[in-house]
Amino acid sequence: MTPNPIYALILAGGSGERFWPLSRRARPKQLLRLVSDKTLLEETVARLEGLVARERILILTNAEQEAAVRELLTDLPKENIVAEPAKRDTAAAVALGTGWVAGRDHAATMIVLPADHVITNHAAFQETLMLAAGAAEETGELVTIGIKPTWACPGFGYIEHGEPIHLRKHNEYNAIHRVLRFREKPNPDLAESFLRKGNFRWNAGMFVWCVPTVLGEFNRHAPALADFVSQLCAPGNFEKALNERFSKLPQISFDYAIMEKADRVLVVEATFDWDDIGSWGAVARYFQSDAEGNAANCAITALDSSNNIIFDKGGSSIALLGVHNLIVVRTGDAVLVCHRRQAEKIKDLIGKLPPELQ
User: Fold this and answer.
1) How far is 49 from 340, CA to CA, in rounded Å?
2) Beta strands, E only, the chain
3) Which end of the chain has the smaller Cβ count within 10 Å, N or C?
4) How much is the pTM?
5) H or E stretch covering 350
């Protein structure tokens, strides 16, 4: 085991746009039961069982979603669920989490995880995180987790890695590499070239480091965030700093603010399965499918219909006749019918809906 206490920061904000009408502003993707009887947030917390003690898990959400998160995670201490007072992107969120952890243990090892991924191999997940924690502690560097691409996805950011790094305390060959640079979401042709080169990994937004390491990077590259962290750590000042300072922080992603500027970053290749499920099309892979490619979470009867995605919150039976390539989602108060090719535009539709349906 790692000699440092491990804390986990789970980023559980989000706008709830891609999975409308099932998702809403107060109920984004991580609060949905899409692939099991647990929400994605509950699954994320469960994956840490045996690795991170419950009292060392911090959930960051927002005011709209705080009540739902607290209702789900009743076994976490109340002070371990924190609502951000304003939307300020991931750099501010990580700074907030760092201040929370540093106020408890300034030498701790810290894991940062999104709340909305699907990972089924918990043992491999924990083994990867332990290797990353060991790398962070031995080298004093920032560590990110890279996912080996299975296809040339233009929707993900990429990590380009260089030579392997060998640790004194770990024998894993070719599992840890020096990061050369982070690459933005590429066009399809560039994504194909990344795949051919073989030294690119998907950036899943998972990070591991020792608290002194990330504090040093904040001081070097984002002094406003570093000052905010120091204010959070001052005895008895956490709530005051959060309420008075957070909304004034720069609105920038952690990748832009820190990771792309840091010159000592390692990537550990994931040995676990991973799915971002960023759309109804991705979730459909977890539904039952018929011979014509109709995927559904409920009973369907289909005639002259193919490649449709059906989700019914109430589990009713749905009949399809002469329709192809549609997404049909029904909840208690709304129904979505759209072409699969238009799925990315669902978020554009939300602004035109009545406020009570957003």
Assistant:
1) 37
2) 6-11, 57-62, 81-84, 109-114, 142-147, 158-164, 176-183, 200-210, 265-269, 288-289, 295-296, 300-303, 309-312, 318-321, 326-330, 335-339
3) N
4) 0.93
5) helix 346-350
Residue 83: pLDDT band (50, 70, 90) is: very high
pLDDT tens column, 159-206: 999 999 988 876 666 799 999 999 999 999 999 999 999 999 999 999
Q: Is the pLDDT of residue 241 over 80?
A: yes
- Contact (CB, 8 A) for 127 and 231: no
Query: Looking at this protein, which amino acid is placed at residue 21?
Result: P
Beta bridge partners of 160: 181, 200
What domains can you pick out in the chain, each with its CATH number? Answer: 6-269 (3.90.550.10), 280-357 (no CATH)
| N-to-C CA span, the chain | 45
Judged by DSSP in three states, 10 sits in: strand
* Separation of alpha carbons 275 and 215, rounded Å: 30
Question: CB–CB of 136/181 below 8 Å?
Answer: no
- Pairing assessment for the beta strands 200-210 and 288-289 based on DSSP bridges: unpaired
Among 120, 17, 8, 116, residue whose Cα is nearest residue 56: 8
8 A C-beta contact, residue 81 and residue 59 = yes
Among the residue ranges 13-27, 79-93, 150-164, 249-263, the one predicted with the least confidence is 13-27
Mean of pLDDT over the chain: 94
Q: What is the mean pLDDT of residues 239-252?
A: 96
